[in-house]
Amino acid sequence: MNLLIAILFIVVGFIFLVKGADLFVESASSVAKKLGVSSLIIGLTIVAFGTSMPELAVSVTAALQGANEIAVGNVVGSNIINLLIVAGGSACIYPIVVNKTILNRDWPISIIAAVLLTIMLIDQKISILEGAILLVCFVTMLVVQIKQTKKSEDIQADTNDSFKKLFLFLIIGIAGIVIGGQLVVDGATSLARIMGLSETLIGLTIVAFGTSLPELVTSLVAAKKGENEIAMGNVIGSNLFNIFCILGVSAVLHPIAVEATAIIDALILVLVSIVFWLLCRIHKFDRKIGAFMLITYFSYMIYIIIR
Q: Which of 53, 54, 73, 274 is the most exposed place for a label (fewest CB within 10 A)?
């Protein structure tokens, strides 16, 4: 791939990402209103799962090839980016109002998930049994979320579109997000190679960031539209989906072996999850906290590059 094609991939990819995310958020919001359920549950489920498709594709493909040690790095790295870059970046541009349910239930569950993952990594592997445990946690979490989300009678649909049309828009939106993310990753990776950057640096930065682009663009679009529940639900929901479902499926397909550095990265995920959860409980999730998140991420990036 030459320079011009690489740049074209990046530009077209971002167009797909932005347009796909815009259609996806609009459709998800309309579906929520038509069903009479909150945007929160849509953000935690449909939107979160849709934007996690790149991570799922990478991890499952690696598992089927028996090389799924990259699955843990992919998930942990993406979760750190989701929290610090996606949520932090969104807050820097459009301050986020965090739903109490996320603060009191879903964010703490994501912390517990990160702690559970760290414990599983102590022996530097995730067994098939541990993968099954993660999947059970995933199903249990979904059931609890759906049961605790009451239907709201005062939510009125603001669209006359049929469910069939809205679900078609959802699928088109997801396709645009996934295709756009892949184009950006491919273009940026080729551009980095043309510029002479190392494969390791490309993997730690461009690829990790690229698989989180769907979450970033979707949350930015949702925050801009005032859909705060979708914006933050997408971040926390994606992090839960990544650990419980993606690692669960990957480990069940093939036991995962990891390097010792993966334990350190998982501990960092636990630490930043706790710190910013506590900060958001005592302070508005405004531009100051968002900026602090971005600074924290770039400090982490410096660490993983020089270690």
A: 274
